[in-house]
């Protein structure tokens, strides 16, 4: 995953072409149905990009080992995004990159995100909402895991602050932000 990347978070076919044209080497697929996955993944990979599926939001896929095995071996996704420890552990078993998605609401949810990451050792933690960025350094220190920020990222002028807080990348479903680069702030 490229440092300071804006990762397109795609909800189906509508914005897929824009996401493929964006500079990020990674795309997050947040919604869709199993029937369309093969075509989406092939299209993304044909353009030399990686695709991570949000296991909790794709219709027709369960968070069980058989589904993740199928996604890894037949659909050939690059990674899995999930809030569920079991999905992340199965994904690691099949060689997929793992993104633990966590929502910060209070100190209890902060502890849950940290403890889950310590136990399942994801490759990345996606922390939502993005305005919880003041807790990012604490999470990185406790877990040793790079953090992606997502949710409520509306404007390009918010991006430098999120990267300065220590985010390796941000994810957003706003196509207007997908072509941002660190060089564009000058």
The CATH homologous superfamily: Aldolase class I
What's the number of domains? Answer: 1
Strand content: 25-35%
Overall spatial form: globular
Number of E-type strands: 9
Q: Return the CATH topology.
A: TIM Barrel
Instruction: Report the oligomer.
Output: single chain
CATH class: Alpha Beta
Determine the fraction of residues in helical runs and give it as a percent range.
25-40%
Number of helices in the DSSP assignment: 7
Structural class by sheet pairing and helices? alpha/beta
Strand order of the largest sheet: 1-2-3-5-6-7-8-9
Series of secondary-structure elements, N-terminal to C-terminal: EHEHEEHEHEHEHEHE
N-C termini distance: 23 Å
- Kindly provide the radius of gyration, computed on alpha-carbon positions and rounded to a whole number of angstroms: 16 Å
Identify low-pLDDT runs: none
Keywords: Glycerol metabolism, RNA-binding, Transcription, Transcription regulation
Protein name: Glycerol uptake operon antiterminator regulatory protein
GO molecular function: RNA binding; transcription antitermination factor activity, RNA binding
Organism: Effusibacillus lacus
